[in-house]
Amino acid sequence: SHHTSHQSIRYAHFSPAQFICICQSLYQAREGGQLVKLFHQHEEVLRSAGQEYWTDHVVLGYLLAQLHAHEFERLFETISRGTFDPKHYKELQELWYAGKYKENEIKRGKLLGAVEKYRIRRKFPPPLTIWDGQETVYSFKENSRKYLKNFYKANAYPNLDQKKEICRVTELEMVQVSNWFKNRRQRSKGANESKRTLKQSLLTSTMWHQSQQEDGSPYSSDRLSAPPCADLQHGSQIEVTERRQ
């Protein structure tokens, strides 16, 4: 329509800083519907935009838009293949679980209770791209964590005798030590792989090509196109306010 065209042109004139500010405000207010509209109206601009548009809050806003639009597969894929700053892990985990809850609720046709949500969290833990692999050591003493990290730098694959010595020094159980090293190795491997694959996978998004093939209009599809690069590793100039437990 003429109205949609006018809106698209007007929004396209936002500078990166203006777009980032709007996206941050909508994300912090959890305005999922408005974020879906914002990304639809900027679809053409964002497809060709450089890294100046894709800051941390824009990517967070994009993920919330995916959640609101019930684009669950895209949401999980984007999170699983991204590279994110650890300071955003908590809210990214919240988006991951919210997607898993909503997807399950839609399939079952009813709201989930606390027990059902717990089972989903156990069944679908967040990927290593948004989890530091240290769930089992949150209650460890700082000295124990430091000892584990220093040992890992020297040897990521301790043998049984070395693990026993680590247990003695840190006062941890064998299973805790074994899990910590396993998770740490997986995180290192996952981070390296995601850096290589994320940008290319999003640039060649099958969903974008499908929406183009349907009738050739970038604004016709209800689906969201993928960002050219969802990389939070370098952060941005504006800090997202962190919520603490």
UniProtKB/TrEMBL annotation:
Domain of life: Eukaryota
Residue ranges occupied by any Homeobox domain in the UniProt entry: 131-191
Keywords of the record: DNA-binding, Homeobox, Nucleus
Keyword hit for Ribonucleoprotein: no
Location of the protein in the cell: Nucleus
Polar residues composition-biased segments: 206-223
Gene Ontology cellular-component terms listed: nucleus; transcription regulator complex
DNA-binding region ranges: 133-192
Keyword Disulfide bond among record annotations: no
Region (Disordered): 206-245
SMART domains in alphabetical order: HOX
Gene Ontology terms, MF aspect: DNA-binding transcription factor activity, RNA polymerase II-specific; RNA polymerase II cis-regulatory region sequence-specific DNA binding
Official protein name in the record: Homeobox domain-containing protein
